[in-house]
Amino acid sequence: MLLLLLLPGCSDSTPSGADAAVGSDATHGDAGSGDAPAPPDADAAAGDDGAASDGGGADSVDPCAPRAPTPTRARFAALVAAVNGAADAAARQAKVDAFLAALGDDYPLRDAKGVVIVSDVAQSAVAGSFNNWTPTAMTRLSDTTLFYAELDIGAAEASYKLVQGSEWSRDARNRHVTWDGIPRAGVGAFNSVVPAFGASGAGSAKGRLEVRRVESTALANTRDVFVYLPPGYDAERCTRYPLLLVNDGNESLTRSHFDQVTDATLAAKRAEPLVIAFVALADQNDRLAEYGTVPSSRGAAYVDFLCDTLVPALETRYQLSSDRTARAAIGASLGGLSALNALVSRNDCLSRAGSQSGSFWYEDEALIKRAQSGPLLAVDKIYLDNGSDNRDSTIKMRDVLVARGYSVVHREDLGQGHTWDAWADRFDEALEQLFPRKTSAP
C-alpha cells in the first residue's frame, strides 16, 4: 500500500475573485424540494416558547443549547377529534388533507410513549422492529383516505416499512432513514426510522441519515439526497459544519456503507466532524451523461445543480459553513471524474475534491487536458486513489495537478480492484485528507 503526499514548494495559484459567492447564477430555474424552513439558528435568540431572551440573568436562554424534545403525537389526537366532529364526509376529508399538508418535518408523530405512523394508501400495513417485521394492518380513520397505526413502543428508536400486498417500501413522508440491510447488486433500499424521543445525540457514536427530494429543472429530474449528520449534530446548535458532496449517493450507502466508515473515522478523531450529502442519481441510466465532462454531456448542468441548487437548499436546512473552503466533492470511477470536474468547473463553489479510481481516461482524457491548460485555481486539497484499476490515468492526472502547483495526496493499493469494498476501505483516508482534524493550540 502506498500513500504519497505531494506538496509544491510554492504556488501562485490563487486567482482574484476566488471567493466569489456560491450560486451566483442560482436564478436559472433549479429549485430545492419543498419550502425551506428558516436556518437552524433562526430561533437562537428565542426561548422554547418563542419569547425573546435579553441575554442576561441566570434565567436567560442559551441559544446554543440543544432543543428540548417536542411531543407531536397529540396532533393526531386533535385530528381524530376534529374528524369525529365534522359535519359530513367532505369536511372530514378536508381535515385530513390539511393535516397531511402541514406535517412537514414533524413526522413521524412522536412522544415518550410511542409513535403514530400514517398512510393515505388503502389497505396499508406496517412492519418493523417493533412487531418482528410482521405486517400489521393499519386502521382507517372514519370514512377518510387516511390509515394509521398508533404504536406504544416507548421512547427508543425503531425502524419500519409500509406494506401493501407484496410491496414493501419506506415511508415517503418520513425523512429519517437507514439502509435496510439487504445486499443488492445495484441500487439499494432503505427502512424508515422512528427517532428516539428526547435524545439530543450528544453521547452517540453514530451519525444519522435524512433523505430529501431535490428537483432540477435544467436536468428535468428529481433525485434523492441522503444527508449524513455527524454524532452530536443535534446537540451543537451553534456549530457550522463543512460539507462533502458524494456522487453515486445511493450505492455509496447501500453497497459501501460510507456512513459507517465516517462514524468510525470521526470516532477515531481522524477527521473534522462534517455533513455529507450522498447525491443519488434520479435514474441509473443518467450516469454516463451526468458524470461526463465534455460539452456534449450533461456534466456541466449536473455540476451547476450541485452548486446552484443543492448547496443553497442544504444551507437553509442544515448547520453548514457558507465558506467555499469548507466544501468538497468526491466520487468513485465516473463519479470521481465528475467530482474533479466540479472542482475545475466551479472553483467558486468548491476548494477541495477527491477521486477514487477516477475514470480520467474517459472522453479521450478531456479532464486531464483541461487541468493541464486551464486557469490556475484556488485549491486547498485534492485526494486521489486507485487500486490496480484506472492506475495509469490517475497517475497522469496526479502528475499534471502537481506540476500546476496543487496540493495533492495520492494513495494506491495494487491489491484492490474496481469495487465498492475497495472504495469503502479507502474512504477513511479521503475524509482524513480532505477534512483533517483541527488541533487545538497548546
Give the topology.
Blueprint: E1 2-6, H1 74-84, H2 89-101, E2 109-110, E3 115-119, E4 125-128, E5 136-137, E6 139-140, E7 147-151, E8 158-164, E9 167-169, E10 176-179, E11 190-194, E12 208-216, E13 221-229, E14 243-246, H3 249-254, H4 258-267, E15 275-279, H5 287-290, H6 299-317, E16 327-332, H7 334-345, E17 352-356, H8 362-373, E18 381-386, H9 391-403, E19 408-412, H10 420-434
Parallel strand pairs: 14-15, 14-16, 16-17, 17-18, 18-19
Antiparallel strand pairs: 1-19, 2-3, 3-7, 4-5, 4-8, 6-7, 8-9, 8-11, 10-11, 10-12, 12-13, 13-15
Helix pairs in contact: 1-2, 4-10, 6-7, 7-8, 8-9
Tell me about this structure.
With 442 residues, the chain is α+β, with helices and mostly antiparallel strands. The chain has two domains: 2-45 and 200-434, 3-Layer(aba) Sandwich (Rossmann fold); 74-177, Immunoglobulins (Immunoglobulin-like). 26% of the residues lie in helices and 21% in strands. The protein is built from ten helices and 19 strands. The chain has helices at residues 74-84, 89-101, 249-254, 258-267, 287-290, 299-317, 334-345, 362-373, 391-403, 420-434; strands at 2-6, 109-110, 115-119, 125-128, 136-137, 139-140, 147-151, 158-164, 167-169, 176-179, 190-194, 208-216, 221-229, 243-246, 275-279, 327-332, 352-356, 381-386, 408-412. The chain has a 15-stranded mixed sheet that branches. Strands 2-3-7-6 form a four-stranded antiparallel sheet, with helices on one face. Helix 4 packs parallel to helix 10, helix 7 runs parallel beside helix 8 and helix 8 packs parallel to helix 9. The longest helix is centred in the C-terminal third of the chain and has 19 residues, at 299-317. The two termini are 34 Å apart.
